[in-house]
Design brief:
Number of strands: 2
CATH topology of the largest domain: Four Helix Bundle (Hemerythrin (Met), subunit A)
CATH architecture of the largest domain: Up-down Bundle
Largest sheet: 2 strands, antiparallel
Shape: elongated
Number of helices: 10
Mean pLDDT: 88
CATH superfamily of the largest domain: GntR ligand-binding domain-like
Low-confidence stretches: none
Structural class: mainly alpha
Strand order of the largest sheet: 1-2
Radius of gyration: 19 Å
Distance between the termini: 10 Å
Oligomer: single chain
């Protein structure tokens, strides 16, 4: 899949950050497909920058597991392996379960009301088959709980793992993992938090990250 034709104009002063963010977004959203060869001069030409910030971005993305390199041979987008889900989901479940426990003392009534509002919006998006909106609302639900945990280490680890997960989900599930049962599972999380039950909240969060038979039936060959 070629480099996108329409690209943002990147100011020279922000080249390093913006080049990294742009290439990362292309990879996560599959505009640059798994296993696609990445040529720094082509990326630099498309983005209107020198090869230096492109090379720096590719090195950083390699550290994050989104790019792989064979020294002096090739650099390419990392493969999209569905088996990674089996390793990543339990890690995410454990981190977000801990975040839910830590968030409990910091959640106000307004926060709980916001979680309910987000979940209502999620249910509506699912009912309307608006997959993009549903995915966004689901991410916002989890992000609020993680933010309220006030644990920057959890936030940093999740920030490094979630882009990998999103890319694999898009490649193998077509972004359809957010289903009606997510709303029910979120309701259980909210109820546990309202009850002040940290253990139940953590258990409900872990359940939300489990793949069931219906989810597995959505698996398709990668792009």
């Amino acid at each position: 899949m070629p480099i996108p034709v329409i690209t943002p104009v990147i100011p020279r002063s922000l080249a390093r950050v913006d080049v990294y963010r742009t290439i990362k977004q292309w990879i996560i959203e599959l505009q640059l497909a798994p296993d696609e060869i990445l040529r720094d001069h082509e990326l630099a030409e498309r983005l209107g920058v020198s090869r230096t910030p492109v090379r720096e971005a590719l090195r950083q993305l390699e550290d994050e597991g989104l790019v792989v390199t064979r020294f002096h041979k090739w650099t390419k987008v990392a493969p999209s392996d569905i088996n990674e889900i089996a390793q990543l989901y339990p890690v995410l479940a454990a981190l977000e379960a801990t975040a839910a426990e830590l968030a409990l003392p910091h959640l106000s009534r307004a926060d709980l009301a916001q979680l309910n509002d987000i979940n209502t919006a999620l249910a509506l998006a699912i009912a309307q088959s608006d997959i993009q909106a549903a995915t966004a609302w689901d991410a916002q639900f989890h992000a609020l709980i993680v933010q309220k945990s006030q644990n920057t280490e959890i936030e940093k680890i999740l920030a490094s793992l979630l882009p990998r997960v999103k890319r694999i989900e898009l490649a193998h599930f077509g972004n359809q993992l957010v289903a009606a049962h997510s709303v029910t599972e979120h309701e259980a999380i909210i109820q546990a938090l309202q009850n002040g039950d940290a253990v139940a909240a953590a258990q409900a969060m872990k359940k939300n990250w489990q793949l069931d038979a219906a989810d597995l039936a959505l698996i398709k060959p990668p792009l």
